[in-house]
């Protein structure tokens, strides 16, 4: 049985003081939450949020990480820095990183392997653009992103990997994939994991859906067989929106 995993991606919102206040509220609101829960503030708020969630049932996430361990890389943040600040999980390959900042499958794969080798958990984001979907290429794209992202990752390391399917056209747009369409891509992703690794690995893989997840659509999406949780952007910035999603009863 896969554990439901709800993650909040705060993107480039909230100063450290604002992030700390939101984390405090979530910590008390989510005390009894039975699901795995993560919040991922921006880099400058990680330290403040780390001290709030330490020892609680909320995991601390980062939204990105350098593909190299350390060195002359102006403006980057290393895996060692994230570890030192108490980060548990790093979100990699988010569509905004892929499409706004030009991250390739190769670079994302380097990040995945580096994070795992340092004991961080990874959320590997995949998803097709509207153009790719309209061209009938959605399955091909997510299959390729899954294979490339996991290249060189051992079956043993997979226990620290979550995949997030986020159709690019559904992120921040208010448009959501229908539960059936999303579930179908999740199935394709699971089959891809099965082909690379094994039936057991595929069965155990937690696959989140992301893209305009809201309290109104969360239950329907997550009730699908292959949807094991959510990666939530906009709705993760407000307690009254994130709470009903995180407390979804499967
Ligand atoms: P959204 O973002 O929920 O605001 O669509 C999801 C994401 O980008 O992870």
CATH H-level superfamily title? Aldolase class I
Q: How many E-type strands?
A: 8
CATH class: Alpha Beta
CATH architecture: Alpha-Beta Barrel
Which secondary-structure class do the elements indicate? alpha/beta
Uncertain segments of ≥5 residues (pLDDT<50)?
none
What is the CATH third-level topology name? TIM Barrel
- SS field, number of helical segments: 11
State the oligomer: single chain
Strand content: 15-25%
Strand order of the largest sheet: 1-2-3-4-5-6-7-8
**Share of helix among residues?**
40-55%
Let me know the largest β-sheet.
Answer: 8 strands, parallel, barrel
Task: Describe the 3D structure.
Helix content is 43%, strand content 16%. With 250 residues, it is α/β, with parallel strands linked by helices. It has one domain (5-246): TIM Barrel (Alpha-Beta Barrel). An eight-stranded parallel β-barrel has the order 1-2-3-4-5-6-7-8, surrounded by six helices. Helix 3 (79-85) links the parallel strand 3 and strand 4. Helix 1 runs parallel beside helix 2 (43-53) and helix 7 crosses helix 8. The chain is globular and about 45 Å long. The structure holds 2-phosphoglycolic acid (PGA). 2-phosphoglycolic acid binds at residues 9, 166, 171-172, 210-213, 231-235.
